[in-house]
Amino acid sequence: MNRRPPLLDHLTTLLCVISLGSGFMNASASEGSLALVQKGIGMLEAQEFENAVRVFEYAVRIDPTDGEANFFFGVAENRLRDGKEALSRIRRARLLGYGHPRMIIEESYALLHLGNYGQVLQALSTPFEKEPQNAEINYLLGRAYYGLGQFE
Known about the structure:
Blueprint: H1 6-18, H2 31-45, H3 49-62, H4 67-79, H5 83-95, H6 103-114, H7 117-130, H8 135-147
């Protein structure tokens, strides 16, 4: 089983949380789901991934149209290595019009968990062109090439 370095887990969680304040809040979310999302993000920060999944699941039940809740539900599922559920939630968030700077990164982790290496390469081609020195993008691309047997 390929495992991300623990430090990378901590850093990606921190980056998700930090970027929350960057103007991507979901204005149409209900008050109940907003409060739960904030609680779930606190659980992500504390590395309580199973609890975060339960909180985000409840937030989505309260407001299925909350893109932020769906996105962070996917993030939490990614931390538990459930690529199928993570991918479903992240793509649902995108369909709901929610945007987040880490959306393509989180989607790529989910695709890696599912073994869809070619899709990772496709998803990251444009971000790599824009940021060829981005360590996380290079890590994901390396994992995808390794999964395809093309890593030298």
